[in-house]
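Contributing new records

If you add data, match the layout below exactly. Sequence lines come first and carry their own label; structure lines follow with theirs. Keep one chain per record. Anything else will be rejected by the validation script.
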Amino acid sequence: MKVNWKLLCTGFATAVLLSACTNSDTKPSENTDPNNSEQVSDETATDQGSIVNEDMSEAILTDSDAQPFSMYVLPTYKLTSEEPGRDSLYSEENPSAFMRIETQVAEEETYEYLLDNMQEVLIASRNGEEPKEVQDVFANPSEKEIKNVKAFKVDTETGPVTGVLFEKDNMVIRLTLFDTPEEEYQKDFLNMGQTIK
């Protein structure tokens, strides 16, 4: 009977030791996994906020030739004047992808007029189809002194057309984005558009 108790105790002790070894073996990988998931979470958070303020370190402050504003322009893009009151910011690698920029002094009814007109332009781009409202085109707009943001989008055969209207620095700013079907340039356009001042 004593031998059996000894065997039972020895077996129990061995099981405890094996269990402890197994736990100590798995703890590093468990510690690694949360770190990895935190990194993934951080990367995801970065991606979610990347519609704006991404990869702008090489952007150059550029003045408009036709309007009273300046903005940061990335190296593969060019800002040019279309006509008085309108500029175009286009991709040099694909000039069919561009963003039209219009600014007006923030006066009574200017915002509402440009908003109505923007929706009419989008409706005309899609043969009468109502544009869909887009949310959160800018991350933390108040930190950039951007307010009253409204954005709408329609899909066309050549790619989506997105209108964005907002107020900043006593200006009402309207951006009209003409992108590729894959929306390759939207982030860059919005990143640059929010720097207008």
